[in-house]
Amino acid sequence: MPASSETDTFGFIVNDLSRIIRAEMDRRTGEAGLGLTTGEGRVLFNVRRAGPIRQTALAERLGIEAMTLSGLVDRLEGKGYVARQPDPADRRAKLVTLTDAGAAVVAQIEPIAAGIRSDAAQGIDPDDWQRLLVALRAARANLLTSRSEAQSTESTAA
Amino acid sequence: MPASSETDTFGFIVNDLSRIIRAEMDRRTGEAGLGLTTGEGRVLFNVRRAGPIRQTALAERLGIEAMTLSGLVDRLEGKGYVARQPDPADRRAKLVTLTDAGAAVVAQIEPIAAGIRSDAAQGIDPDDWQRLLVALRAARANLLTSRSEAQSTESTAA
DNA sequence: GCCATATAATAAGGATTACTTATTAATATG
DNA sequence: CATATTAATAAGTAATCCTTATTATATGGC
């Protein structure tokens, strides 16, 4: 991939990185015998972190629609990595929980993700890397803000 | 999106940003009456930059498979933004060129992309932003290297 | 010259991510 | 108690990207 002006700006680079990281994750987890997509991995990590959690809340955490999550949970449930349990507080809701098998898989994925991360950071000053993460989080927060502003003015205008 | 340890590392953030930027691009280009997907946009920018170019070379530039590009070019050709011309040097090959309409669309997209970029960079020190870009390009180069190394050892081992 | 091999593009088909709209069931509110 | 809201999902769509196989053309070795 060439480093030229307008075709190598922030958006392009981020898009490239996202595709490359996804492909690397697929490749390395595949080699390790773990058939897991990036989306499924994201769900597992977040379920582990956020404990038994309602699908709505989990979708919000992931920044995806409830319906999109529904399909991901279907697949993960089929693989035996998560379970849907009734929410005692609300009979409509289901709590997504990590199974033992799911926890084991997350533990296996963790070092793979860390490996990709350290490959990516190779040769970059650790302080620079920390600043990079801070700036990226700030950029994400900025874009989320401008998106929600656009949504609110839209609903005000319409 | 919460800022917690293992669920907010480099890969997760990059993935988030990629999704958010794509959604913002879709939204803003849609508002401007330009029905263009991110993939199509990438192709247009690269065709403008790399002039009449063979599909194989263009796919390589974009880091996607020739077949994937074929579909994108189909759609762009349908919209009248690019044309396939025979390569005088090789009758199998086709040169993808930007039409006048395509050039006009790229010119319209450019400020939209710049707007997203400036929204993202809001409140971040310009020097930090420059360092961010340098570090991101380095990370991308690192990952591309580790990928090609993995491919070569794979073929050696097998 | 001629055959084997390699290359350029594409046809065909599949997986994943993610969306929207509408439905069902259950809960909350006025 | 009727209405509105919420949780999950069914159904259908679209984009991106992949793999494998096919067709046409080039090219290098004999």
Automatic annotation (TrEMBL), chains A, B:
- Which UniProt keywords are given for this protein, alphabetically ordered? DNA-binding, Transcription, Transcription regulation
> Which InterPro entries does the entry link to?
HTH_MarR-typ, MarR/SlyA-like, Tscrpt_reg_MarR-type_CS, WH-like_DNA-bd_sf, WH_DNA-bd_sf
Q: Which SUPFAM superfamilies match?
A: Winged helix' DNA-binding domain
Signal peptide positions are: none
This protein's species is Aminobacter niigataensis
- This protein is called DNA-binding MarR family transcriptional regulator
Recorded GO MF terms: DNA binding
Q: Which SMART domains would you find in this protein's record?
A: HTH_MARR
The record's listing under Pfam families reads: MarR
Is-annotated flag, keyword DNA-binding? yes
Indicate the segments forming the HTH marR-type domain, all copies: 7-141
